[in-house]
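Thread: VWFD domain-containing protein, structure

OP (GT): Posting the sequence first so everyone is looking at the same thing. Length is 1224 residues per the record. Can we get the structure tokens written out before standup tomorrow? I want them in the notebook alongside the other entries.
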Amino acid sequence: MNIDFQTTSSLIIPGNSKTVVIALRNVGELPNFDTEASVVYNNQPALMKMSIKVDKDVTASILVQTPFDCMRDIQSGFSFIGDKSQFTSNMNLKYNEMDKIEGKLDFFVYKLRRLNVVLDIKTPFSGYEQTVLTLKHHSSKKSVKSFAEAKYGHGNVVRASIKAMSDPKELEITVETPIENYEVMSIAARHSRIGNKVDTSVTASKAQQKIEFTNVMDFDSNPLKIETKFLTPFKGLESTEISINTNVDINNLRTEVEAKSSSLATTKASLQWQYVSPSNINGIATFTRGSEITKLIVNNRENGNEITSHVQGSWLNGKSVTFDGTWSLTETWNGLTGHGGVALSTPFSYLKSFSSKVSFEKSSTQQKHSMSTEFNGNKIVDIETLLSYGDKYAMEITLREPTQLKVDSELTILPSRKSTSVMLNWDTSRDDKQVKMEGEYSTERGNTELKVKVSNTEKSVALKGSFQNPSAKLISTMDILVDDKSIFGYDYECKNERSRRNLNLSNKLKLRLPSRSLEVAGGYSNRYGTKSLEGAFAWDSDRDNSKKIGFKSSLTPRGQATSAAVSVEMPSIGQDVKLDSEMMINSGSVIFDGKTEFKYSKDTTKTLVIKSRLEDISYGDNKNYTLTFGLQHSYTNVDVQVASHVGQTDGRYSTGVDVKYLTAKRQTKNFALMAEIDSLKKQMNMMVKSPMKTIQMSGEVKTSSPYTVRVSNLIDEKYPLNTELLVDIERKRIGLQMNYDLDNPNNIFRMNAKYVNDSAISAEIFREENSRKILDSLLALRLNTSHILHTRLHWRPSMLQDIKDAGIRKLSLCSSKLNSAITEATAAVSEELNTKYNLVRQSASQDFRPYANFLQQILSELNKQVIAIQKSLLNANDMLENLKTVTRKDFPYKAQYDLYVEATKELIKATDAYKFWEVQENIKAVLDKIYEMAVEEVKEEINGLKNVITHLKNSKFTVYDPANGEIQMDSYLPVGMPNLKTLPSISVSKQMNHIASYIPNFNRFPEVKDLIPDTDVRNWIPPFKGENQEIIHFIFGDLYFVVNIFVIYTRFQSFIVCNNFLLGVAVLAGEHITTFDGKEIDINGGKCSYILTRDYLDGNFSIIANYVGKGQKKLVITTATQNIQIAPNGKLRVDGKTVKPSYQSAEVSISKEDDIITVWGNGFRADVDIPKEIVIIQISGWYHNRLGGLLGTLNNERYDDMMTSSRKITSDSTYLANTWSVCR
């Protein structure tokens, strides 16, 4: 595409003028083009030329000339000659006239068997005038040779070489540097095997220092010999030799080890081991170092029925630890007997001796066990048990140490009777330190009985109960006895009688207390459709049947209506409460009709009546619903009636509520609210009516041109408040008028705005008072020229004072009226409430006094009953307190135990003191750096804007007279406007350079890591990959942004690398994939494994999805040394072993929260949601463009996310998945 463009702009200011000439010329299209751009500002020229030629070879050049010292003359060139297996590339940059940077790269590769690379860089920087990097590599089937060399500065050279052979197995690595003491470093290794003799040697040297290691193993010799030797230059470790002789026989093992060192005494160790069976073992191990001898002796012997074991360890100065154990087991004609014991002796004061003995005897009728233990000569445990069995079971436990205790128990089990007893004596020297517990359970002929008793020499507590379940009846009783006297009991009876049409249920519960009996009874019946429920509570049922409260309720159907009755009976106070209710549902037009009467007194005027009715009186397509509600209490003059309706006909909607109520003076008053909407006439009416005021409001809308809206408000049928809004689109005008003063309805407020012509607009606000026009304000706009806009603003100087005075008058008048209305309403409400309150208080005082007296009597009697129960419980508590006197002796190792407890507490505190705030401080420091850089960039941009707005000086005031309400000004328009009806046409291309100087083009900014050349040299030649295309456009498109990117990269390079942020996020949901760069892909997983992502540069990790069928998948993660597998059911395996989700190693850490398993690795994180079958993978930005797989390359380019394993881009997701599958 050829472009030849030139523009000239002039900025004229009185006394000064500036001219800008911009020219642009382009010949050709990508990838072959020549572009030249020039700018002349105030007679100062700037020039940029750029050329790119791509055929078999690639050449490019750029020239920038400006009047600025830092960018006065800059030249750059680039060339590429060759192909992907052999090429030469040159690049140069010249600036500041004499400064020049040159680079040359020669590259040759042949099937990865031969590789030659030479990079030559020349710079004007002192000490780095020329740098040459050389890399050579040659490999064959039996050998590999590699050589690398770097020359820099004044004769500085760094070399490294690697040589390896497979036959014989040899490896040599050599490194040469100019660093003192590290001039030459090398490592050499050799491994050989002749028959069963293995010889290995390793030598490492640095300068004049050398470390040698040799190892010889002879598997043919008997005994087996192993000789190892170390030679080092370190003092004290000059020579070390180790020899091992052993015969490989587990039943008769003999082994000798000898170690010699230049600085340590000769050390010897020997082991002799004879093994026949676990009960017949002899062994001795000896360790000798100089004159120090350490021994360990093990001896097990079997003598008849007795087995003995002896273990002894001895060391310096004759100190030893001895362990002896015995065990014997003998069968007799009547049973089995046995005994055993262990003994331990040490030279330590806190554990000089320990011994324990056990014995047992077992026959057909009993078992006997005993155990005694001594510690440092003191007996700490002495216990004996005896168990007898036959017709009944008996157990006896006798404890002599650490305290005196004896337990005797018996258990009898018969078909219809089960009983048990336990006698506990916690001080055998006294008879009053014992307690007896007895229990019995019997079942016979449908009668079940339970007895439990606890007693000592002074008191007894017992529990007795029975249970019977004859036909259609259940009977249960229970008693609690203290010293064989009942203090509490209950009787419970339940009946369930059913017939074909009748049902009768009843329950009765009686609580027997020391002073009275409490009884609760209830029943439910259903006889021929009539349902009734009754209940009663009596608090002295055995002595006074009038002391009770009873209730009855019934529900009787009557055709389409239903009646309900509830009554409460209190014979002790002579009061009855009755609730009658009747309702009808879905009868004709009646949806619901109900009436409820609440009677709490024999006076009929005190009956509370509630009525409600919902009716559908609709006809045809018209809808109409009515709702009435009434509340009446004649004694207190309460009579409230509410009637409402909702209706709808063709185009009309109406609703209304009417409330009538009776005052204390028996006057009927009402409150009404009505509303109507007529969609055909586009009208709306609403009225609110109360005893004090009536408010009416109506509105009308006209939708044809001109568009009008009228609203009218009428209070107490006086002068209305009218408002009208008019919008005339054809004439381009807007009007508003309203009579704002109710006391003077002819006073009108008006506001008009309109287009006078194509270049003028006017708006005014005025009032009409007594047919006199009063202008309050005026705004007029007139376009004198295409760049001069004249504005006039006028207002009446006394307008604000008039508004203030009128507002004060209206406020004073409204305040007076409001105070009068509030005083009148307050007096009426206060009188009504006081009258109603006195009537209610009088009624409540008369009718509810018996209930208060009744409650007072009940509370008094309950208080007496509670005191009696407390006294009974205190007597039982005395016996229970005697059970708490059992004591124990001090634990022998209490001091050591407390020490361990305190140490554990300190360990927990240390764990809680994890230095978490260190992370927060690091994050804060990073954010501070980002903030400082942002402030600096904003300041630079603001400084560049200071001179842009100088054209505003052309705007000026022509009239400035605020005292008389007049201001006029001429405004300079930076963009020409032919009229005020249309917006000006602005050329985007013409203003682009001007706008670009203020707004950075962030869309053209590549990622910082995009500026790092691709490590795959195949991407250095055409066709360039996405990231290299960005770099070419970036470098040759705008040199200014190159400088900015270099600054950003310098500031944040260490920040990004150190924090290793997770920048790439990909999602695998079932068989749907979202790549790191946001592309959506669907695959057919089937039963196969696919590579999701893999580090193809260093091979640090691979993540694979293994589909096992039905969309379920197993996630496999491999690192350099580990393999992690997460099954569909959440089962976790590491290196083939099942582990818990709290695993951590040097390479990965695994955790689980709720149903999500998280795996952290070096630069990656994987979150697996087990129930939802979703995998979220996050990758560090360090792996930018280093990945491959179904999840893409992580290079901020979506177009290459569907790249196959052979680095070809496809649009077929099935073919893409097949190339990354590992099951073909």
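GT: Both are above now. Quick notes for whoever picks this up: Residues 799-882 form the longest helix (84 residues). The first strand starts at residue 3 and ends at 13.
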